[in-house]
Design brief:
433 residues; alpha+beta; Cytochrome p450; six-stranded mixed β-sheet; three-stranded antiparallel β-sheet; 18 helices; globular
């Protein structure tokens, strides 16, 4: 559902093609892409690139250009209008799952978003906090304190998964089955060798979600899915197919991005002891610290793909009709023209909630941003309250561990080894199992 930064620079740009092409395909780039983004902002802020699928795209790296592009009506996301481009990038995936508000334009997007917003009310989200706090506590209770623990597998991954499953009414043994098939989808997309596995997994998920909609219609309550089903719009309520695709995008976006953001936030704080100490000493800093952590190390490196609905110009660069457009959110969030000393983590930095692009901007601004913020605050509070002396378990943690999986536009950790209580951890804790 996201596209990777392109891996080859086209002719005619004032950057060294060989250096750029090589740098964007290296482990060093995955570990720290920011020098590359700095070069692009300075020399080719709207860079014509070629993806590994052979599709030409334009990568936008400056803040002002990125913010405008995210709300530019000349840049579309409707997968039906750009179906050839869509399949060139994603292959023959399941349209029934991907035909959701993430890949829709007005007026259809307006209707879908209106209905989703009715379910994601502040009251509904606030009501989830006690359960999220309970889940965070239960997960930390299971973590060992006498040996290193991978905080991604033990905490950052299961917490958002549990939250989104409870939100959608996925309970008991069904939860394990959904996550198994969902995992098959995320591993199989972008792999021609696993096309059969992908089709089977997507069929299973589509059938499961359809059954869940049927059961909820028969016995509605005041839960999230019932609200989605019951909410009307002047152009009609959600169809069963739209409900299925809505659940898919909420499951995907509702836990992947938050999982990686929790890991990024913990790793970043542990890597900056002075900033961690500031948060520990004044917990009222936590909400604005979260905004800074999202700006500094966002879990979504580039936006979901868009394409030009007409010939247009951004940053002085002509973009032809039909071309893919990508927005480097991580680059925009490090633009010194917008954020002073952008490569410095400063948890006292103010005014970020309405300025950083970590949750996007414009009509496709992250629907679950309030929930994600609550999960981040709850996760960090639980971790730092329970284990105030937590430290990274290896000096190099987070180096080669940055995500290089099937959705490279995400920026997150594969592993995050920590010692939760160094005073109780065995002597060789710097060598996690």
């Amino acid at each position: 559902m996201t596209t990777e930064p392109a891996v080859a620079v086209s002719d005619g740009l004032p950057v060294d093609e060989a250096v750029m092409a090589a740098s964007m395909g290296t482990p060093e780039y995955r570990t720290c892409p920011y020098p590359v983004y700095q070069a692009l902002r300075e020399q080719a802020p709207v860079a014509r690139l070629t993806t590994r699928h052979g599709v030409e795209t334009y990568l936008i790296t400056r803040y002002d250009d990125a913010r405008l592009a995210l709300s530019d009506p000349r840049i579309g996301k409707d997968m039906h209008e750009g179906l050839d481009i869509y399949h060139a990038v994603f292959g023959n995936t399941c349209d029934a799952l991907d035909d959701n508000l993430l890949f829709a334009d007005p007026p259809r997007h307006t209707r879908l978003r209106h209905i989703a917003n009715k379910a994601f009310t502040p009251r509904h989200i606030k009501g989830l906090r006690p359960r999220i706090e309970e889940l965070a506590g239960e997960l930390l209770d299971r973590c060992p304190t006498d040996s290193p623990v991978d905080l991604m597998a033990s905490f950052a991954l299961p917490l958002p998964v549990m939250v989104i499953c409870e939100l959608l009414g996925i309970v008991g043994d069904e939860r394990a089955d959904v996550l198994k098939w969902f995992g098959n989808v995320t591993r199989s997309r972008f792999s021609k060798d696993m096309a059969g596995d992908l089709a089977e997994a997507e069929d299973w998920l589509r059938n499961y979600f359809s059954g869940l909609v049927t059961r909820t219609r028969a016995t509605p309550s005041d839960d999230f899915l019932s609200v989605l089903i019951d909410t009307e719009h002047e152009e009609g309520a959600l169809t069963d197919d739209e409900l299925v695709s809505m659940m898919w995008v909420l499951l995907f976006a509702g836990h992947k991005t938050t999982t990686y953001q929790i890991g990024n936030a913990v790793f970043t704080l542990l890597s900056h002891p002075d900033q961690l100490a500031a948060v520990q000493q004044d917990r009222e800093l936590l909400p604005q610290a979260i905004e800074e952590l999202v700006r500094f190390e966002c879990s979504v490196e580039t936006s979901t793909f868009r394409y030009a609905l007409e010939d247009l110009e951004i940053g002085g660069v002509a973009i032809p009709k039909g071309a893919l457009v990508q927005i480097a959110l991580s680059s925009a969030n490090r633009d010194p023209e917008k954020f002073p000393a952008p490569d410095t983590l400063d948890v006292t930095r103010k005014g970020l909630q309405s300025t950083h692009l970590g949750f996007g901007h414009g009509p496709h601004y992250c629907l679950g941003a309030p929930l994600a913020r609550m999960e981040l605050e709850t996760a960090l509070t639980a971790l730092l309250d329970r284990f105030p002396d937590v430290v990274l378990a290896t000096p190099a943690a987070g180096g080669e561990e940055w995500l290089k999986g099937p959705f490279p536009a995400f920026r997150g950790l594969e592993r995050l080894p920590v010692a939760l209580d160094p005073s109780r951890t065995v002597d060789d804790w710097t060598k996690p199992a």
